[in-house]
Fold:
Amino acid sequence: MSIFDPKIVAFCCEQSGVPAAEMAKTLKLKMPDNLELVPVPCSGRIETLYLLKALESGADGVVVFACYEENCRYLQGNIRLKGRVGYAKQIMAKIGLESERLEIFHVATNSGVKFTEILMQKVDQLRQLGPNPAK
Amino acid sequence: MYQTVYGGKYAAPAPINLKPEVLIIGGGVVGITIARELAREGMQVVIAENGESLGGGIRHLHFFYDRHTDVQQWLDDMIADVESTGNIIVHKGAQLKRLDGHLGCFQALIRTRDGGETVLSPSVLVLATGCITRPSAAMNGGDRVIGLSEMEKLLAGSRDVSLAWKGQPVKTVTYLLDRTNDDIKIDTVNAVKQSLILQEKGCRVAVVAGDLKVSASGMERLYRRAREKGVLFFKYDEPPVLSPTDDRVSVELQDMTILRKEERDTVSLLSDLVVTGETFTADPTAEELCRVIKLRPGTSGMLMDDNPQFQRVLSNRRGIFLAGACRFPQIVTESLSEAHAVVQEVKALLHPGAYTPANPVAEVDPRKCAVCYTCVRLCPHAAIGMEKHGERNVYAAPAVENDGTLWGAARIEPVACFGCGICAAECPARAITLYQ
Structure:
């Protein structure tokens, strides 16, 4: 039996997550195989529906790479995101999805190593959780 | 004029013309410097100064730490130059009461204290409102404890005579810098600068500080010179105790050169005068100004928080710049370099004569807009307003025919939009699209 390879959708803010991903790529760090990066201009662009749709259409876990709070180029984008992720988690709890399947991580432009570490940890965590029942 | 057909494609926003006109709020040293340099470039500059005369907070300063110029003389020369320059207009006792529009076509209403109102249409706005210096909380030591500004005035008043305080000669001075201004270097700079002047007058000077901040150009050299000239520096962990004696003040502190805490002796410095650091608060008009200009106020009432995504002089609105002590208290050298930075930014922005919105911009479909004001409230760049459109929107009752009623809808100004997409994500009617 093959090992379960969870599908991760990572929304990356163009100010922090995208440069961090590029850095990880340049450093040739180990990334999960089943990963889809979605660049967004600001983490505030991510709608609640985006997060839930991703889970609905096949993702086992959704992560959002946003800037540290107070570092947002648009001042409050990541704070808006926090509210939306909180709302999405409420909905997930109602339909019986584990809250670990959706998480925000704050990264800076130079955190390429942290970027991959977070993703690899997420893969391990999702392996233990098993496939997403909602897909 | 708005030109979007329902379901139509995105048309690149038209460039906007920029007139070389600048409005500067605040006529302190920063405002004056910016005005002079921009006027030299041939721009029309208006300074709106809240007080009755130009100068601002630097009026309390008499000595530079890094050059031998007299501050007030230097300032008066600059003011004379500003007032004789043709393309600088100065409004005194003036406050900004209203600001509409965006980069290139701001509409600013300036009200002077005598009731006169002027409407200006500058392309760019510069805020240089500065901050206010207040003496620290009163310390136990009676009237022999003064603030740094008071000492500065005293030194300026006795340039060629020996120092005297209330008729009595001053021979020993102790500077006591508290920890309230931990990340501000003004106290250190002024204390070291003044102690060198006092040393030349033959006073014995001691500087007692938790930490000295010498991260300004030339400050380490100044500190070393102060040590060489014989100024005593003491560090403390626990705040020193002040106790007034009959004609002096005694500053008692632990001798930090002994490493073991319990073996430390108490050193007491008998001084004729004790000079303490000062606290800084935002200008009282800053809050009102933030509201008028739609800027986000920073912590402790200052303008704009520190944010690594913004250069120090940029604000959250395109075409509005901040310089000087309105963001955080700073020394004159720092303020002047911020002023030069603003001059560069304004020149770079206005020089091409037009601005074309370049980054992805959001656009509202007026047919879908329910006028809920969510985007207007959320936009961090104050780029969204309400407008009347001819097009009928989907919320109209089916019975209502297109009878020429003007329907309201949000409109995003492409010049002011930064393209973050916060509005697009939040719009409940999904009427906003972010075009790449």
